[in-house]
């Protein structure tokens, strides 16, 4: 009797794999490439794994597939005009599928994603920039509507008796509150106007 095939699939395995690779990178274990980045005299070196970089970046994939076998197992890649903080964030993203950056760095992250041909990071940055733009446009629209309430409703909004009394220029026959006049006197004057 033949049994039907069943699918064994782990939902946590991809996340666990990424977490373990990140831990190996942070500890410097099994790293087979060092990426040196330099920007305006600031330089740093990042140990990483060729397989992870090649799987997430077409730039690195091309570099590693086209490199000539050296006498050693370890490779070095040099990137100029890449800021240290941006490459560190790039590595965090490719090893964890997420990274937290300041809003003003999103464009720089998009630039590095395009330079290194990392489609996942490019799409993530693009979606975030789109959300940020939509949020700004919504705020501008709300601000514009709050500044121009006449455009929303052509009829003049109802003004209460006190508000109307405050808008009228002072009349010598009407005393203002606090100067011996009673609120009833103001109400009577407001009713006359209505």
TrEMBL record:
Domain of life from the UniProt record: Eukaryota
Coarse class of the protein's main subcellular location: nucleus
SUPFAM superfamilies, per the entry: POZ domain
Region (Disordered) residue spans: 144-194
Subcellular location: Nucleus
InterPro entries: BTB/POZ_dom (IPR000210), SKP1/BTB/POZ_sf (IPR011333), ZnFinger_BTB_dom_contain (IPR050457)
Domain BTB: residue ranges: 31-103
Molecular-function GO term, any one: DNA-binding transcription factor activity, RNA polymerase II-specific
Gene Ontology cellular component annotations, sorted alphabetically: nucleus
Keywords: DNA-binding, Metal-binding, Nucleus, Repeat, Transcription, Transcription regulation, Zinc, Zinc-finger
Name of the protein: GZF1 protein
